[in-house]
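Input structure tokens:
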């Protein structure tokens, strides 16, 4: 039964509005119109307090909504800005790059993946060539539907035209929208509620009511001493967890997709696929953790792929490349293993990917080294990528973290050429420390992976080193353990 004295102000307001109409066809819409929290009202209706006063019936409405990936786009789908200009006859690459700025590569890559455009060579060099005008013509409809869904859920079946269905299918394939089942209720107000007399209830006894004596004439809401109190959670994310989430948000906002891999890997993916010779010092037990159980991990089933890796090693490094050495089981020494697997899956498709995962190296633990730490992996596959592209991505990333004093120093990696170390200023030590390694993948590595015709830039950054800079700690061990007493640098 409905307890008039125990009802909250919002509940009384809701009941009063129900008395003025015989039926509510959509409780969701009703709550939105009158400013009620739908979860609060659903709980009130389902509690049984209105039993005998209203009849309610569940309704399921399938709708289209933006995914997290779609929400990160900022209202415009990749490719739309370039498609709009190409449809208006602007094909000069210099003009398009000037108008679109840093987003040109993003929009061009989106259209290129659909084989709708290409960059002209020879006589027409400097022009963006339209290969499939039908694809460009579909973008305004796709954008219109995307904007409509961004403004509010779109009921399934609302756009039944062929072009609308095709655009929705495309948006779903890109991961920008998804179907959801929306729960709603239809309420029928019974005569018992329509005839119910609601009187004002005072929930707070004020000094004015006491001094004036009006407290004797009003109805006071009684206190419920049995009411449950909120359960306060005292836990909080660790320092490294906060750093991981902060860095993940930066890369997602830069248009990257996240990838992941396993901690146990074969030496093939950790070294051989990355064009690291089988006699390289990094493969010694002094640097890499080899497993006793299992001792080996199966190689890929693609025999042609393995043969290409074998030929590359034996041609360039000499000697005999063996599958026995390549199949040894290890704890991955870097997350570039995940990148190699993704490149093999892409087979030359453009893309931007990142991962933040744990790696293991048999190193002596000191102020700036750990045997177990996190690596921030990043790779961009595309066309016309260069050292300037690489430095631009890394500079933008570190600026988003608040770092201004960066240095790039040439270095050597077996699988990148050219290669750059990334150094950042560390105030506690008064000098620069290495925070990552980067470079352009070598063709000898890319060709077996099916990406030999593409250019790639990649990097591996140390999460704990970045946390040292963010929190101003002197050694990595200060970031780990149950007793951490640090504060964020201003």
């Amino acid at each position: 039964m409905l307890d008039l004295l125990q009802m909250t102000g919002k509940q009384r307001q809701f009941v009063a509005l129900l008395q003025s109409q015989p039926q509510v066809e959509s409780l969701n819409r009703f709550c939105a119109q009158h400013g009620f929290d739908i979860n609060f009202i659903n709980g009130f209706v389902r509690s049984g307090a209105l039993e005998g006063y209203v009849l309610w019936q569940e309704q399921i409405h399938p709708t289209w909504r933006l995914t997290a990936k779609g929400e990160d786009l900022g209202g415009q789908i990749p490719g739309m800005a370039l498609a709009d200009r190409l449809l208006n006859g602007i094909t000069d690459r210099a003009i398009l790059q000037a108008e679109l700025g840093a987003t040109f590569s993003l929009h061009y890559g989106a259209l290129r993946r659909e084989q709708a455009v290409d960059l002209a060579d020879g006589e027409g060099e400097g022009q963006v060539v339209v290969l499939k005008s039908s694809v460009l013509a579909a973008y305004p409809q796709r954008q219109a539907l995307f904007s409509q869904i961004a403004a509010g859920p779109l009921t399934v079946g609302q756009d039944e035209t062929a072009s609308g269905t095709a655009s929705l299918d495309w948006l779903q394939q890109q991961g920008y929208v998804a179907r959801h089942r929306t729960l709603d209720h239809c309420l029928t107000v019974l005569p018992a509620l329509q005839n119910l007399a609601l009187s004002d209830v005072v929930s707070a006894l004020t000094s004015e009511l006491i001094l004036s004596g009006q407290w004797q004439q009003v109805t006071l809401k009684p206190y419920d001493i049995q009411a449950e109190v909120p359960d306060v959670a005292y836990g909080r994310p660790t320092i490294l967890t906060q750093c991981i989430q902060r860095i993940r948000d930066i890369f997602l906002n830069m248009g990257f997709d996240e990838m992941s891999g396993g901690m146990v890997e074969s030496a093939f993916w950790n070294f051989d696929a990355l064009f690291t010779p089988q006699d390289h010092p990094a493969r010694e037990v002094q640097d890499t953790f080899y497993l006793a159980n299992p001792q080996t991990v199966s190689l890929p089933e693609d025999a042609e792929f393995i043969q290409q890796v074998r030929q590359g090693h034996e041609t360039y490094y000499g000697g005999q490349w063996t599958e026995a050495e390549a199949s040894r089981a290890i704890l991955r020494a870097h997350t570039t293993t995940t990148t190699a697997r993704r490149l093999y899956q892409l087979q030359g498709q453009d893309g931007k990917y990142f991962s933040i995962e744990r790696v293991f190296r048999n190193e002596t633990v000191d102020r700036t080294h750990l045997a177990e730490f996190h690596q921030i992996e990043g790779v961009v596959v595309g066309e016309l990528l260069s050292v300037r592209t690489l430095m631009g991505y890394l500079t933008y990333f570190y600026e988003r973290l608040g770092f201004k004093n960066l240095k790039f120093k040439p270095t050597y990696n077996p699988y990148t050429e050219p290669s750059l170390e990334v150094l950042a200023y560390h105030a506690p030590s008064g000098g620069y420390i290495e925070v990552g390694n980067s470079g352009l993948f070598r063709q000898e590595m890319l060709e077996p992976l099916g990406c030999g015709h593409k250019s790639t830039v990649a990097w591996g950054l140390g999460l704990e080193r970045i946390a040292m800079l963010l929190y101003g700690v002197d050694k990595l061990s200060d970031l780990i353990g149950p007793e951490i007493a640090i504060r964020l640098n201003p």
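The CA atoms of residues 142 and 168 lie 7 Å apart. The first strand starts at residue 23 and ends at 24.
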